[in-house]
Known about the structure:
By secondary structure, this protein is of the alpha/beta class. About 35% of the residues lie in helices and about 20% in strands. The longest helix is centred in the middle third of the chain and has 24 residues, at about 150-170.
Amino acid sequence: xxxxxxxxxxxxxxxxxxxxxxxxxxxxxxxxxxxxxxxxxxxxxxxxxxxxxxxxxxxxxxxxxxxxxxxxxxxxxxxxxxxxxxxxxxxxxxxxxxxxxxxxxxxxxxxxxxxxxxxxxxxxxxxxxxxxxxxxxxxxxxxxxxxxxxxxxxxxxxxxxxxxxxxxxxxxxxxxxxxxxxxxxxxxxxxxxxxxxxxxxxxxxxxxxxxxxxxxxxxxxxxxxxxxxxxxxxxxxxxxxxxxxxxxxxxxxxxxxxxxxxxxxxxxxxxxxxxxxxxxxxxxxxxxxxxxxxxxxxxxxxxxxxxxxxxxxxxxxxxxxxxxxxxxxxxxxxxxxxxxxxxxxxxxxxxxxxxxxxxxxxxxxxxxxxxxxxxxxxxxxxxxxxxxxxxxxxxxxxxxxxxxxxxxxxxxxxxxxxxxxxxxxxxxxxxxxxxxxxxxxxxxxxxxxxxxxxxxxxxxxxxxxxx
Length: 467
């Protein structure tokens, strides 16, 4: 996310300036951006999978600069970041630019999304893939007799970037065309270069870990405050999903500030912006930024819409041995359909229901829960049955008459519910009863929930405050 602000805003600023001599001079200065071979070369004769340019934007929670040098203690204090940062990709955003269109769609992948790691069957949070791959690659190189620490670090990080990109491709079904990455210091610098961004909060909030301490209402933030704003996850109603929302709001405001504020009219500010990009951004070696800027001509701040991938369960308990460990459960099929829909791809042909029919009873007291669960199970191939509300009960159960195996499948899909035989359930039917403590898939309607009831897209023209 941090990197998105840098590359996207720099490109937009340069695009608007492109018709002037100063603009072209500024564009040429982008040639100094650091590059790395992250994108694999296409196979001979390979054609693009769809009609869009797809860019992966990564924000790393790194306490080093892009040359691998540790950040000075005084800088870490200013950033409100501890010295022992993990190699995590705290922000993952894919920007989709349909060919021949000016509308740009960007979608966030929550950092705790529970995915299958590339090249195997192991599951992990998507933000951990970078660090795990880096550690494994470094060990492999040392075992092979490599001793140059700088070279080991370089190769290990390249492998980690490629693995992260591959994980995004496998989850989203998108072939990534270009890659860009920034770190904590990068975001700090870019937010100051544009003079800050206006945001609006519904209520005052504090979080010691991120350094967030904001009053309610409208306010302009930059530097360490901007970093705290986009990193906060504690004391937010939906934790990581609300943090993603904050990142989107800030980036949309950043684009607006650059394009409609005083940044473009101030050569010194634009130079500072480009200099910050050159100091800290890493992009893939095949990316022609000048050509990209030409493609982005005419895009306004309001022409960029930010969304979040569909989420099945934002509070997924993935390890029975550690019931307090949680992740964000996602369904790759839902994510791929969502990503394809952003460029107008035709929806997948629906499969005929495999049966049996599932009736859903809402005994939780939560509005809309039965409908969300019914839609979720229909997407999994079950026939849609009746939905209704009954008197509240605490626990959930899946009941069956003559479909015990499929009832067990439903119970597993919903997070491991109890299953029981009941003569009251008609033949060919399964009955799901949802209690007050149900926390499984579909329990939350936020973040692009299972039934598609997510937040509205964020643009620079979006009004109102957020949590």
